[in-house]
Amino acid sequence: MTALLLVPLLLPFLAPTLARRTLDRLTPVTALWVLAASAVALAGACVAALGALVLTGLLKLPAFAALGELVHPLRTPSDFLIVPTAMAATGVLTLSAWTLARSALRQSRLFRTARTQADRRPAVGDLCVIDSPHPDAYALPGRPHRIVVTSAMLRSLGPSEREALFAHERAHNHSGHHYFLAAAELAAHCHPALRTVRVTIRLAAERAADESAATVLGDRRLIATAIARAALAGQAFRSTRPDFAPAATTGPVPQRVAALLTPPEQRSRATRCTALLLAACAFLSVCAGATGVFAFHHQVEVAQGEESH
To answer: At 128, is the secondary structure helix, strand, or coil?
Structure first.
């Protein structure tokens, strides 16, 4: 059982490399779905494995065994391995819960501030202009969706570049990219290796919005110019928007510009085995975690006297 529960804790370390290669080999939209689903699956399996390890350690103690209505404390093959592992799992889960709670409170506060600020300004359709000396623009989720742009950002771009920027942000809202970013943020607090995957998911969301805006406007070079100018204008300003509110200036802008300036028909049609490896990694992690949890549940039933060995 212990060996199976360790699998979901080790497999996520393969995810960062596989995630980067997946984004290179699939279209941004497809890659975004694969990356987000894999990150959530890996994170869920990791949390389930940690929880089972913690409960295994606790139920070996007579006091907790009595609370669980066990006839005898849980018996495991190696107490020298289980007890330290359970203690480590308890520390990891506690730290993850603490950082997640802090992040959730911070993001909620930033979202309320951004939403209040946007609702106080008159909107033209879904566009809300905020008077600010700092160049910034982002897609704000909620009801209704808003494209928030500061007056400084508008002054930094030409008329056609503004339309390109708005098309990019509308693509974020129409595609619900804030859900993917929220899932990536949640997964990043469940395993340290998934923090790097979070960055790749953010890049995939930006690439997907770039491609959507290029399709709407029919000018890839214009989109590339707009996001490059917007990034240069806002590089000295640290935005206070929530992390799940996507923005055109997010991620490695030179890489995104290069992708836009590469015609689709000239892109490499490399094998998609990397994406399959990432999906297989997530599937194996879930299967190992589920099997380990079921084995733990069976041991508990044995200790309760409900089943025999």
So the answer is: strand
Residue 222 belongs to what domain range? 2-267+274-303
Q: Is residue 308 a part of any domain in this protein?
A: no
Using CB atoms within 10 Å of the CB of residue 98, give its burial: 0 to 12 exposed, 13 to 18 middle, 19+ buried.
exposed
Type of residue found at 155:
R
pLDDT digits (tens, 9 = 90+) for 128-150: 888 888 888 898 888 888 899 98
Domains contained in the chain, number: 1
The pTM score is 0.88
Sign of CA dihedral 31, 247, 230, 167: positive
Q: How far apart are CA 205 and CA 228, in angstroms?
A: 17
Give the alpha-carbon dihedral of 233, 239, 245, 246, to 10 degrees: 30
Ranges of beta strands (E only) in the chain are: 123-124, 127-130, 137-140, 146-150
Any idea which of 81-85, 141-145, 254-258 has the lowest mean pLDDT?
81-85
